Amino acid sequence: MKNKSFLVKNRRIIILFLILIIAAASQWLVELYFKGASCIKINRNFYSELRNLNKSCQTDQDCKVVPIGIGLCLNKDQDTTRIEQLDKKLKECIRKQSSYVEYPIDPTKLIKQCECRDGICRGINLEKKLNQVTITTDKTEYEQGEDIEMFIKNESNESIYLSTTECTGGGELNNLTLERYSSGNWKNQEFMNYPKPKYFACFVKCIEIKEGEEFNISGNKLEYYDYNKKANFPLIPGKYRFRIVTGKQCEKDTGLKNTSVIYSNEFIIK
Q1: C-alpha angle 250/253/257, rounded to 5°?
Q2: Per the domain annotation, does 5 fall within a domain?
Q3: Is position 163 within any domain?
Q4: Mean pLDDT computed over every residue of the chain
Q5: Number of domains, the chain
Q6: Are 227 and 138 members of one domain?
């Protein structure tokens, strides 16, 4: 009875206290809502501005990197004042929200350089580009015994090396292997293994492919030499690819060092 009497006597104070709590909570929710809505509006303006930026180019020199996010590649004459202001406002707005968690940007994903490709400024990831050495064939389909040509292109930021064994009477490229796809696996395939003359002296020769250069391998036929029958035979139909070893250093006495394996595109012999 005493508790009931206390509630009856103080009901006005209790009601007022509850009203104050509800009002404070409502104000907090409204502020949180409008903060979120404000961030959404800034975000929309940011991406609307982003779509209108000039990324056109004719040469690599027409492009520049703008340090927003992981990096933007834009035309060098593009004014970035507005997009940089929106980026700053968006970050400040998001940080004020209690749910915001800032994650550090992976430095390997940062765009540090731009290039002009297909008339548009595009980013170059320098860390990833170090591995961009490719070997491609001149065609993707060949007839049996047909000539084949290969191109090794160095799109990395440093020189790479191939090695050849040069001997009196001839020479050949080292570490070039042909593989055939069979029963779910890639298997080594004999290729251009012609009888070799008797050499009197041999040495390793290093071939440097500088940054941006291309090395051509030609004069090969899609055939092999049968030592038992002492005759050349075309490779059987199937799916093939080349495997080659390159190095970042090369010495005449020991050959390639700090090596990497590169696979060509796949091609078909009909």
Answers
A1: 30
A2: no
A3: yes
A4: 77
A5: 2
A6: yes
Nearest Cα neighbor of 248 from 259, 239, 237, 232 is: 259
The count of C-alpha atoms lying within 13 angstroms of the C-alpha of 214, restricted to the half-sphere facing its C-beta, is 11
Q: Please answer whether residues 221 and 172 qualify as being in contact, where contact means their C-beta atoms are separated by less than 8 angstroms.
A: no
Cβ-proximal residues to 229 (8 Å cutoff; 6+ apart), any chain: none
Does an H or E element contain 42, and which? helix 11-51
Single residue among 102, 125, 148 that ends a domain in this structure: 125
Please identify, among 125, 149, 180, the residue that sits at the C-terminal boundary of a domain.
125
What tokens does 249 get?
């250093």
Q: Which residues does 106 contact at the CB level (< 8 Å), separation at least 6?
A: none
Q: Which tens digits make up the pLDDT trace of 187-236?
A: 988 876 555 555 556 667 888 999 889 999 887 889 888 878 888 889 99
* Closest to 128 (Cα-Cα) out of 107, 148, 101: 107
